[in-house]
Write a structure and sequence with these properties.
This protein has nine helices and no strands. It is mainly α. It has one domain. Helix 8 runs antiparallel to helix 9. The radius of gyration is 32 Å and the shape is rod-shaped. The N and C termini lie far apart (115 Å). InterPro entries: ExbB/TolQ_transport, MotA_ExbB_proton_chnl.
Length: 231
């Protein structure tokens, strides 16, 4: 009976020990990093919000810029061939896309040497590309700066851990090192996450922008070829 009672007591202690399981939420993990860690996490969170906003704002703008009616250039060539310059200009204004604005610029130069028309279209194209790439460079900056900010938190966390260790009086306790280690690890992970998001978003927008640029170039060449055709 006594042996059974002892085994039962041990089982209850084991059960109680297993039931006391420490869990840690993301908020608790961040707050455990101390003031320095929370400040760096807040900075990284702001950068993440900025990166996401720029990505979707530019994505929608680039998608809108890439929408061109397949029959647009045929209509332009018909108007130009028939001498209906005003109708061609009106069509460009109605479409209102990077391609139509380039063609508009070329139409307004009709009658001048072909080289001058080409130069005018190229200059207008540079402005259109600049507009498409608006704020995209910020994503590249965030993708490079975020991991470095996270590593800054790592260094700060390790300094705090070493400081606590130096003042421990010869006794090393994990609770003493916990705050510094939390700062080091959480900021590193957060910095890498923000950096990866910024990097992927930047490269995706670059690919989308290049497609619009190629579209602009193709339509510009088609327009110039039409002007160069013998009457």
């Amino acid at each position: 009976m006594m042996l059974f009672s002892t085994i039962q007591d041990d089982t209850e202690l084991l059960t109680d020990g297993e039931s006391v399981e420490k869990t840690l939420s993301i908020i608790e993990l961040i707050s455990s990093g101390g003031t320095a860690g929370m400040i760096i996490i807040a900075i990284l969170f702001i950068l993440l919000v900025v990166a996401i906003y720029i990505y979707f704002e530019r994505l929608f703008a680039i998608k809108a810029a890439s929408k061109v009616d397949a029959n647009f250039m045929n209509q332009i060539k018909d108007h130009v061939s028939n001498g209906k310059i005003d109708s061609a200009l009106m069509l460009c204004v109605q479409v209102n896309s990077p391609v139509s604005r380039l063609i508009n610029k070329g139409i307004t130069r009709i009658g001048k040497p072909l080289e001058d028309i080409n130069t005018a279209i190229e200059n207008a194209g540079r402005l259109e590309i600049y507009g498409l790439e608006k704020n995209v460079s910020i994503l590249a900056t965030i993708s490079g700066a975020a991991p470095m900010i996270g590593f800054l938190g790592t260094v700060i966390g390790m300094i705090l851990a070493i400081f606590e260790l130096a003042n421990a009086g010869g006794t090393i306790e994990m609770d003493t090192l916990a705050s510094g280690l939390y700062t080091a690890m959480t900021t590193t992970v957060a910095g890498l996450i923000v950096g990866i998001v910024g990097y992927i978003a930047y490269n995706h927008l670059v690919v989308k922008t290049n497609k619009v640029v190629y579209q602009m170039e193709a339509n510009s060449v088609e327009f110039l070829d039409h002007l160069n055709e013998p009457s």
